Amino acid sequence: MRRQLELDMAGPWLDQSASKIIDPANGDVLLGLRMGTPADVDVACDAAAEAQRAWFDLPWEQRAGVFRRAADLLEQNADLYAGWLIRETGSVGAKAGFEISVVVKALREATAMPSQPSGLVLPSDPAKLSFCRRMPLGVVGVISPFNFPIYLAMRAVAPALAIGNAVVLKPDPRTTVSGGLLMAQLLKAAGLPDGVFHVVPGGAEAGEALCVHPRIAMIQFTGSTAVGRKIGALAGGRLKKLSLELGGKNSLIVLDDADLDVAASNAAWGAYLHQGQICMASGRILVQDSIHDALAERIVAKAKNLPMGNPTIGEYAIGPLIDEAQGTKARDLLNVAMAEGATLLTGGGGEGAFFEPAVLTNVTPGMRAFDEEFFAPIAALTRFSTDDEAIELANSTEYGLSAAILSKSVSRALAIGRRLQTGLLHINDQTVGDEVVNPFGGRGKSGNGTSIGGPANWDEFSQWQWVTVKHEAQQYPF
Ligand code: NAD
What we know:
Layout: H1 2-10, E1 14-22, E2 29-33, H2 38-57, H3 60-76, H4 78-89, H5 93-112, E3 119-122, E4 128-136, E5 139-143, H6 149-162, E6 166-170, H7 176-189, E7 197-199, H8 204-212, E8 216-222, H9 225-237, E9 241-245, E10 251-254, H10 260-272, E11 284-288, H11 289-304, H12 324-339, E12 343-346, E13 358-361, H13 368-371, E14 378-384, H14 387-395, E15 402-406, H15 410-417, E16 424-427, H16 456-461, E17 462-470
Parallel strand pairs: 5-6, 5-8, 6-7, 8-9, 10-11, 10-15, 11-14, 13-14, 15-16
Antiparallel strand pairs: 1-2, 3-4, 4-17, 12-13
Residues 143-147, 152, 170-173, 203-204, 207-208, 211, 222-224, 227, 230-231, 245-248, 279, 373, 401, 442 line the site of nicotinamide-adenine-dinucleotide.
């Protein structure tokens, strides 16, 4: 039954001789899928444009009902979706369960959108009605990453559809099933009319075809800054609306009055959750001098005690990275850090896609470990002496996604936070967090100044239309 469901889901893309979906924990082939070509993107975009008008014309209750049913179906079948997240992405069970829960929230938020007022009556000539209303853009292209593949796609797909757009989604090729095909199956089962939502599996070629397609009004991209730049040039050059949610090198600042055990737990969670493969990961742990060594010791103890293994067959805190290449990249980064003068206190072992949680100290500005995203479970500690120095260190990055401060003095933390150049700021927490109803977006090279989520979604996925109505047309002076 489950197998049949999965085969139905893969549908026309199923091809055991084509690109393989691999379980990163053991290299097992889960499915073979044909990857989409620019011709497939063309077909999807044309069909989406055709279907969008009727979708937008549906009574709002019918549009809302699709997301209500989808949320219910997802909750009822959470095991199926979580199972794919675990096998296809190396998510541990708790992370997979958390991801499903935020996708359910995103669907429930989308359920509420069609019933919200979508316009304003404006002051004008008394004989004239002047108003503005939010209109769907048409067809929105969504390009999504591998790390939280369902949520990071659905956080764009659901609100875009709810406003009355059609959507063409290109997920990461390594997570095509959880990041795309299962979503299409879910929305179809929930009653989304045919043609309104398309998934085109594929890599850069399909993504670039989406960015330049004349039917696409907007690209919503979540992924690396390097690819975001390319997408910005391609789609921006064609004057499409752009939403770019990109990388981050996020500082967790631990002040000298913080509780050390709590700080160690926050640091380990921020650096190691989902093997560090999170844009908001605590990639820099800035620690005040007087508590540095004691905190480092506690983080080392945590790192050594986190069980690592194949999440399909057991409960672990650390699963595999997305693939062996990411494991090799993490080992290289660690070696470079040591060559540049950092000290490895623990971790870094493991083979293939498995990488033991590591703790580095003596990480200083100018080192790659200070500047680059790890996307691996590495806690990198940097010392500071004054609050001003912490601010300077935290701001010395091209990115500007998230920051967090741990201190018993909330006013001291708030004063520091006001000077941090990030889109997200957490006081007495670590850097990773998304509650779905909050606007989410980064500054600097972490994005293009847009936000997604909560109140930001209307601005993101619609455009104002200003309308005036006179009772009858009048003569002008000439
Ligand atoms: P990536 O940029 O390599 O890939 C993301 C997506 O872009 C994939 O679907 C990929 O197939 C596609 N793609 C690759 N080249 C393309 C091209 N030339 N044209 C169009 N599409 C193309 O990202 P990744 O390394 O897989 O993901 C990790 C990155 O994503 C990290 O930098 C992380 O910080 C970032 N991220 C950001 C957020 C956020 O909300 N800010 C969330 C998660 C991940």
